[in-house]
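Hi R.,

Here's the input for the NAP complex you asked about:
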Amino acid sequence: MRVILVGFGNLGRGLSRVLVQKASFLHRSHGLITRVVAVVDEFGSVVDEKGLNLNELLKVAEKKGTVVAYKGGKRGKLALKVIDDVEADVVYDLTPTNIKTGEPGLTHIKRAMREGKHVITSNKGPLVVAFRELDSLAKRCGVEFRYSASVGGAIPVVGLAKKLLAGNEIHEIRGVLNGTTNYILTRMSKEGAPFEVVLREAKELGIAEKDPTLDIEGIDTACKITILANSLLGMNARLKEVKRAGIARVRPEAIRLAQEAGYTIKLIGIAKRGSLEVGPKLVPLGHPLAVGGTLNAVTFKLDLAREISITGFGAGPKETSSSLLGDLIDIHRTLGG
Ligand SMILES: NC(=O)c1ccc[n+]([C@@H]2O[C@H](COP(=O)([O-])OP(=O)(O)OC[C@H]3O[C@@H](n4cnc5c(N)ncnc54)[C@H](OP(=O)(O)O)[C@@H]3O)[C@@H](O)[C@H]2O)c1
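And here is the predicted structure with NAP in place:
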């Protein structure tokens, strides 16, 4: 499979490392040979239709901060030109999330589909802004569209529901879908420390971003709930339809009282037909959603299997590569490989 990577940050580089490390495994186990024929970042691009040497590219990009510094690298906003001009089977859009416009990923994804290229993305922005449009565009263009890494990082939430649980009707999806807020609530419950103190430490440790608004106000979780509602419940939901509360008003005393009664407090996203919601909720101690630290977890309520829960790492370049690579293998198999 010839692959174009648009975005060469944490995930683009993480996936490239994994493609190098797993080259012979992928060939042996899946009959899959990947060739990364172009890489694009914000500054420019590098193309080699015979396949880039990813080890060398990683070294240069890490040292110089851009792929432009690699031999043959070109400067400029080149993503669309590369998507148009370079022959490839799959385009990965791994660019930053913008939940208002979906850009730049939205335009990359549409262009790739119209060019007859399959698309894999980890970017919530385009999915939140235009899920239905992208889903039908992919069908009209006859291309595969995968986005496993956009919700739950390494956890195969979408694949589990769409494939292995396909015989079930999904009544409800409930999840801890944001590692930063889960870390903060876990520490508040273990140490009895106030929200503001734990948030400050989380920022110092690099677990929370400098501006953690999207996380603590529950917006990131609401985006993921919107994606799950649209992709797994067949809805046409908009982000603004998600009823939302964040964690800033959760007090240590509330967590202590909850614990005395056998519960913990988690920021939970809930998707069911007719109601989408994010907010702090009581979760019984020992329940699969009562995960600690930065872990994520999802529980499906189903007509046949009743309840299925899944837990894992919701972020991280290596962990998320599990989903990014899984999507590639899935497309390879779908195409008969
Ligand atoms: N990190 C995770 O664990 C994780 C997990 C799940 C989902 N995600 C999502 O996956 C996406 C990528 O995450 P990340 O952590 O890799 O982000 P990142 O480290 O910020 O990397 C983003 C990359 O996109 C490039 N870029 C920005 N604008 C571009 C444009 N117009 N054309 C081409 N490239 C452009 C950036 O280039 P420069 O470096 O030149 O600025 C950078 O290489 C985000 O949407 C994120 O929300 C991340």
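One thing worth noting: Residues 6-12, 40-43, 66, 79, 94-97, 104, 122-124, 149-150, 153, 315-317, 320 surround NAP (CB under 6 Å).

Cheers,
M.
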